[in-house]
């Protein structure tokens, strides 16, 4: 039991100390994307930002299904190229763009919907910037919440968690 506890603490410390460039790309399953977008309730005029967009599947699906503009922020140049090519193949390149940027430095202030599938420490670090977005902006996170900010909804499906926050009026 002590050994298990030691490794759990070690894992937490390593995760907290990890550089964000070490965050691996893990694609979001289609079923989870569907639920994330259902919770976010995108509407005409919304602009979705996917922070850590990987292969671009969330922005592409949002543009296809809801006809909204979407922006993916991704640090890995190969994933950005792959995402842009996928948007072109899907016929939504006019609605979707991908930017090769560090998500901690990126300007996403125009977002009305933000999607996240990041490590817990990354969500926590982004919290002040997310809370500063325009009132009624919806934020949906896959798997991990945002430390210090209670979600208004949490859904569990097939062992995965999805959280929703709405930026409150000031």
In short:
The chain has 170 residues and is α/β, with parallel strands linked by helices. It is built from 5 helices and 7 strands; from the N terminus they run ααβαβαββαβββ.
Write structural notes for this entry:
It is a single chain. The chain has 170 residues and is of the alpha/beta class. The chain has a single domain, classed as Rossmann fold. It has a seven-stranded mixed beta sheet, with helices on one face. The protein is globular.
Using brief descriptors, characterize the structure shown.
170 residues; alpha/beta; Rossmann fold; 7-stranded mixed β-sheet; disordered N terminus
Number of domains: 1
Spatial sequence of strands, sheet with the most strands: 3-2-1-4-5-7-6
**Residue share in helices?**
25-40%
Low confidence ranges: 3-21
* Number of beta-strand segments: 7
What is the third-level CATH name, the topology?
A: Rossmann fold
User: What structural class results from the helix and strand content?
Assistant: alpha/beta
Query: How would you sum up the major sheet?
Result: 7 strands, mixed
End-to-end CA span: 47 Å
- Shape-level CATH architecture: 3-Layer(aba) Sandwich
Q: Just give the CATH class.
A: Alpha Beta
How many whole angstroms does the radius of gyration measure?
Answer: 16 Å
Overall residue-averaged pLDDT value: 89
Number of helices: 5
Write the layout of secondary structure elements.
Blueprint (H helix, E strand, L loop, with lengths): L1 H16 L12 H11 L6 E5 L5 H10 L2 E6 L2 H13 L6 E5 L12 E4 L3 H12 L6 E5 L10 E5 L2 E7 L4
Parallel strand pairs: 1-2, 1-4, 2-3, 4-5
Antiparallel strand pairs: 5-7, 6-7
């Amino acid at each position: 039991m002590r050994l298990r506890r030691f490794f759990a603490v070690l894992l937490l410390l390593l995760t907290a100390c990890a550089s964000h460039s070490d965050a691996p790309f893990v694609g979001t399953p289609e079923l989870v994307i569907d639920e994330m977008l259902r919770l976010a309730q995108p509407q005409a005029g919304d602009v979705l930002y996917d922070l850590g967009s990987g292969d671009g599947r969330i922005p592409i699906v949002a543009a296809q299904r809801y006809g909204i503009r979407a922006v993916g922020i991704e640090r890995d140049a190969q994933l950005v190229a792959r995402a842009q090519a996928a948007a072109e193949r899907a016929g939504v390149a006019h609605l979707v763009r991908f930017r090769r940027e560090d998500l901690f430095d990126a300007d996403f202030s125009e977002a009305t919907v933000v999607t996240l599938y990041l490590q817990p420490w990354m969500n926590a670090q982004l919290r002040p910037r997310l809370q500063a977005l325009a009132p009624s902006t919806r934020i949906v996170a896959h798997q991990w919440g945002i430390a210090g900010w209670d979600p208004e909804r949490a859904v569990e499906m097939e062992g995965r968690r999805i959280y929703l926050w709405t930026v409150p009026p000031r």
